Amino acid sequence: MLLLVLFLCLVCLGVTFSFMPVLPGPPFAILAMLLIPFWPAHAMDVDDLTWWVALAVAGVGVVITIIDFAAPWLAKIFEGVLGESSRAAAIGSFVGLLIGIMSSITMGCMGITIPFLAALPIPLMLITPFFGALLGEMTVAGPVGETASERSQRLVRSAFVQWLGLLTTIMLKVMYCLAAAPVGVWLIWRNWG
């Protein structure tokens, strides 16, 4: 069934692109959900429940996408609680994520595994953004009169804020895409299975 294959391909793209801060993942899952009721060959056969479920799941995806794009501004709200982070730390976190992804792909292609990571590349992708943010924050001069201890605390706090923000948005996007998959498969099976 072409609809099922296309749906699953779009959801897989959504999960994959959820790890990339530049490329939005949830819109692929939103498109996949909207394909179900609008599928040309079956659009007349779709019942109200399918419309409501597909539109509700797509609506949740739109909200998650808005949150993802608004995350930098939302982070400003929580800076007082967790501490401030610089633009250099954000860039370093992004570069660290790219390095983690590329290293994971390279190690997977070469058959290299790090014993404590087994063959699972995801932990590497989740660790490297922290170190990237830490290195990025190291390039920023601190306040005048900052002691070595205060600098260390600022560096770690800034890297942690960036890392936590990145992980939160990635997990939110991935969990949405993964949750949309069984709902969509159920809707397809229910209507045309």
Describe this entry's structure for a reader.
By secondary structure, this protein is an all-alpha fold. The chain has helices at residues 2-17, 26-38, 48-82, 87-110, 122-138, 148-192. The longest helix has 45 residues, at 148-192. The relative contact order is 0.18. Helix 2 (26-38) runs antiparallel to helix 3 (48-82) and helix 2 runs parallel beside helix 6. Helices cover 78% and strands 0% of the residues.
In short:
The protein is mainly α.
Task: Sketch the topology as an H/E string, one letter per element.
Answer: HHHHHH
Shape: elongated
Average pLDDT across residues? 80
Return residue spans where pLDDT drops below 50 for at least 5 consecutive residues. Answer: none
Helical percentage: over 70%
Q: Summarize the biggest pleated sheet.
A: none
Helix- and strand-based class?
mainly alpha
Task: Provide the β-strand percentage band.
Answer: under 5%
CA(first)-CA(last) distance: 9 Å
How many beta-strand elements? 0
Give the SSE layout.
Layout: H1 2-17, H2 26-38, H3 48-82, H4 87-110, H5 122-138, H6 148-192
Helix pairs in contact: 1-2, 1-6, 2-3, 2-6, 3-6, 4-5, 4-6, 5-6
